[in-house]
Amino acid sequence: MLIKDQKAMKKLLFIMLAICICLLALGQNDTPNLNRDIDEVEISPPAFTGIANYADLVNVDAKYLQKYLSSNITYPKEAERCGREGTEVIKFNVNAQGKVTNIDIVNGVCPEIDKELVRVLESTNGMWKPGVKDGIPVSMEQEVSIVFSLTESTELTNEKFLKVATACFTQGAECFFEKGKSKKAERLFTKGITYMPHDQSLLLMRGLCRYERGNREGARDDWNRLFELGSIDMNSKFLAQAEGLEAYEALMEMLADK
């Protein structure tokens, strides 16, 4: 989404909102009835209304959140000065009262952008229609992805981000498999993920790097995220190259438990 107004451009530069509102959990505080079939449970995800203390808004437009964020997010000056850009991914709960809680940065670009996104999300308290399970409002988890770019074009931003992420992956794989420089490889994979956090190959490889370097918890975080996004390409040549590594065996064990 390109901000066309020049004054607004100076304030926001370019913020693409890849809004990915996903229902990731059912109810946080209720106990399921195991005697019921799953298709008998009626679930409605939370919806952003854009209206503080709304009474009863029936028709909720998914674009409300996109418009609200684009109007209220300001590209931090320090991040702009340092040329920081990438894709922020943030998870949060919308509780039964329509308030935003448990905000968690899944993929951060820099502390300044993290802080700005948290600030704007917190300002939406009371503007959410809570998720409903069997007619009862419950807490549900949501996820939002937002692209922060200094390039004034969606097409050029996509091209740039893909180019950077691809280069990071290629160089990182070479460092890891051919040069034995796992520390440098992890840095490269992390940079790639900053731009394209939903790329499964980058998450897979960073997890392998982290495990081999002794960061077992970080590796499992990457692989669990990978499982959230979809299945692993077992025919990947890079995965085949990892056979024989402890990290490979650990990943296979995690897959077996899924």
Your description of this structure?
The radius of gyration is 20 Å and the shape is globular. Strand 7 (131-133) and strand 8 (136-138) form a beta hairpin. The strands form three sheets. The chain has a four-stranded antiparallel β-sheet with strand order 1-9-4-5, with helices on both faces. The protein contains ten helices and nine strands. The protein has 258 residues and is an alpha+beta fold. It folds into two domains: 6-152, TonB (TolA/TonB C-terminal domain), CATH 3.30.2420; 155-257, Serine Threonine Protein Phosphatase 5, Tetratricopeptide repeat, CATH 1.25.40. It has helices at residues 6-12, 63-72, 77-81, 111-122, 154-177, 182-195, 200-212, 216-229, 237-241, 246-257, and strands at residues 14-18, 43-44, 47-48, 86-94, 100-107, 128-129, 131-133, 136-138, 140-149.
Structural features:
258 residues, alpha+beta, TolA/TonB C-terminal domain, Serine Threonine Protein Phosphatase 5, Tetratricopeptide repeat, 2 domains, four-stranded antiparallel beta sheet, three-stranded antiparallel beta sheet, 10 helices, 45% helix, globular, disordered N terminus
**How large is the count of helical segments?**
10
* Order of SSEs: HEEEHHEEHEEEEHHHHHH
Which architecture name of the largest domain does CATH use?
Answer: 2-Layer Sandwich
Strand order of the largest sheet: 1-9-4-5
Q: pLDDT under 50 segments (min length 5)?
A: 1-14, 17-39
Overall number of structural domains:
2
Task: Label the structural class.
Answer: alpha+beta
Taking the alpha carbons of the first and last residues, their distance comes to 37 Å
The geometry reads as: globular
Would you report the number of β strands?
A: 9
Please give the share of residues in helix: 40-55%
CATH superfamily of the largest domain: TonB
% residues in beta strands: 15-25%
Global Rg = 20 Å
CATH class category label of the largest domain: Alpha Beta
Kindly identify the CATH topology of the largest domain. TolA/TonB C-terminal domain
Overall pLDDT:
81
